[in-house]
Amino acid sequence: MLDHKYDDLDSAIANGDVPGLFEAMGGLWQAAQQAGPGDLSRVVARAPGLFEQLPSIGLRAHLAVLFGGLAELGADPAPLAGQLGEGLTEALELVVEYAAVWKDAVPEEPPPPMESKSFEVSVPVLAPLVGDEHAQRLAQGWAEIGQWKMAAITMLQRSSTVRGHLAGSERLIEAITTATTVDHDLDWPTRLLAVLDDEPLLVLHPATGRGYELTIGGIGDNFQLHTLLADALGDSLGVDRPDPSWVASAVDGPLEPEVWPIRGQFNLVDAYGSAIWNEGVPADIPIFEGRRVVVLKPPPYPRTWNIGRLYPMMRPLLRVDRPLPPEEAATWLGKIASHV
User: Fold this and answer.
1) Average pLDDT for the chain
2) What's the pLDDT at 216?
3) Which residues lie closer than 8 Å to 302 by C-beta, 6 or more apart?
4) For residue 262, what are the β-bridge partners?
5) What average pLDDT does range 194-205 have in this prediction?
6) CB 172 within 8 A of CB 87
7) Which of 2, 95, 204, 271 gives 20 to 30 Å between its CA and that of 70?
8) pTM
9) Contact 115, 143 (CB under 8 A)
């Protein structure tokens, strides 16, 4: 059934049948409700060619939302990393150009909200300056940026491959930076693109003289990192383990734990002696002799928070690869002793 509904979508796009396209999208979405992750992923793997057949940034935005929805149901969105990055970049660039043209056309009026109904308002204003065809393209980018945001937030959470692909695009990073001059809220991809994946982390505990090599990934902020470190290392370091509901909320359970507030067990410090703020992200932790280092110290005062993870659909990784032998841990602790 799922493959047949995909074929209907493919046929509508190939024939340029826009009403049929939206009907087929609805049919595919309904069929997806009964499909498993494997079948959903197989359909997504077929989808890159669909985007290439749609010249309209607006129609591609709606298609991206559909496949973002399939990712939320369990599909692997990695095959669409290129199409997502290209569409999001183009939409952001169009937003920047739209704002400039609008200002030239009606400098005394602010542009309409970035939502679908702004399309009809925009085209008559922009067309005298750039022509009807380009005005429609600019208006689509402005009106559909929210659709690209919706798709991107889902796919970026669901796939480290998507995160890596988009984070490596200089054009996208430039587009985000420029778009924030139009609306600061358009910097929303920045935190997701800063998420570290398969990142080595060295953790040192001066009170016990112990150290550990870890690998982390998919962690949205240092509140989440704090909880996961306490869960992984608490027993061996003699500190209280987090309540199981805190850990679940930091991994894949309800965002607000049953037992709350979440309490911090450590004071996180970097190798240079500066605080690692819970409000920050793991990418903020500076490199020291080739690796990121977290030093676990006693908390100077109680710290609490209520939400276990920033991104509900992003599954974190925190793996203890090995405890350091005592002499190796002592060497590292000696290197940072003058700072911490």
Assistant:
1) 96
2) 98
3) 263, 264
4) 305
5) 98
6) no
7) 95
8) 0.95
9) yes
**Number of C-beta neighbours around residue 11 at 10 A:** 13
- Token pair 């027993």 is found at 235
Helix axes 18-32, 2-14, angle to 10 degrees: 170
Is the sign of the CA dihedral 190, 196, 201, 206 positive or negative?
positive
Task: Check residue 313 and report its DSSP letter.
Answer: T
Task: Give the containing element (helix H, strand E) for 11.
Answer: helix 2-14
For residues 309 and 116, what is the distance between their CA atoms, to the nearest angstrom?
31
Residue 63, pLDDT score? 97
Q: Among 231, 210, 225, 207, which Cα is nearest to 292's?
A: 225
Of the candidates 182, 263, 179, the one whose C-alpha atom is nearest the C-alpha of residue 223 is 263
Sign of CA dihedral 304, 296, 316, 241: negative
Pairing of strands 262-263, 210-217: unpaired
Could you give the dihedral angle defined by the CA atoms of residues 119, 125, 128 and 133, in that order, rounded to the nearest 10 degrees?
A: 0
Domain boundaries, the chain: 2-189, 199-336
CA separation for the pair 311, 314 (Å, rounded): 6
Of the CA atoms within 13 Å of residue 192, those in its CB half-sphere come to: 25
CA distance 128 to 131: 6
292, 286 contact by CB (below 8 A): yes
Q: How far apart are the first and last CA of the chain?
A: 61
* Residue 339 clears pLDDT 80, i.e. is over it: no
CA pair distance 154, 197, nearest whole angstrom: 17
Query: What residue type is 164 in one-letter code?
Result: G
CB 216 within 8 A of CB 307: no
Taking the C-alpha atoms of residue 261 and residue 257, their distance in angstroms, rounded to an integer, is 8
Identify which of 294, 308, 200 has the alpha carbon closest to the alpha carbon of residue 251.
Answer: 308
Peptide bond preceding 37: is omega within 30 degrees of 0, i.e. cis? no
How many whole angstroms separate alpha carbon 142 and alpha carbon 111? 10
Rounded Cα–Cα distance for residues 173 and 163 (Å): 12
| pLDDT at residue 262, rounded to an integer | 97
CA 85 to chain centre: 12
